[in-house]
Amino acid sequence: MGTLYYGDSGTPIGIEDRALAHLKFAITTKLRRGESFTLSWKHPDDQPRGRSTLWVHPTIPLRFVFDEPETPELSREWVEDLMRSANSTGGILLVEEHVDVEPEPDLPPVIAA
Q: Which residues form the DUF7882 domain (predicted)?
């Protein structure tokens, strides 16, 4: 579980490492351009029900802390989803990764003996 620290708030935001790596890419891209935006997410099951939103601005300190020492391979589709939402009026919406699952090959019918 990674952690996002925003501003001088003493409240760390726990985000799974792989999701945080993708989010870091989207956020740093926007901040490099000098753009402000919102970042929203639904609370995980182990927290009180609800959702949160941050106003992210280039002048506010931001730190990403990862539990895993290795950087995960990024999913182009997930990054594109995050960047699409980043460029919308609603800001970045942290969504889960869409994993393509290969369909099971058609198996011949089983004939009972």
A: 1-97
What lies within 8 Å, CB to CB, of 12 at 6+ separation is 3, 4, 5
Asked whether residue 107 is domain-assigned, the answer is no
- Euclidean distance between CA atoms 2 and 24, whole angstroms: 11
Domain annotation covers residue 100: no
pTM reported for the whole predicted model: 0.80
Nearest alpha carbon to residue 42 among 29, 33, 51: 51
DSSP output for 19-64: HHHHHHHHHHHHHHTT--EEEEEEPPTTS-SSEEEEEE-TTS-EEE
pLDDT digits (tens, 9 = 90+) for 9-22: 778 998 999 999 99
Per the structure, the count of domains in the chain is 1
Q: How far is CA 55 from CA 15, 90, 94, in A?
A: 17, 11, 14
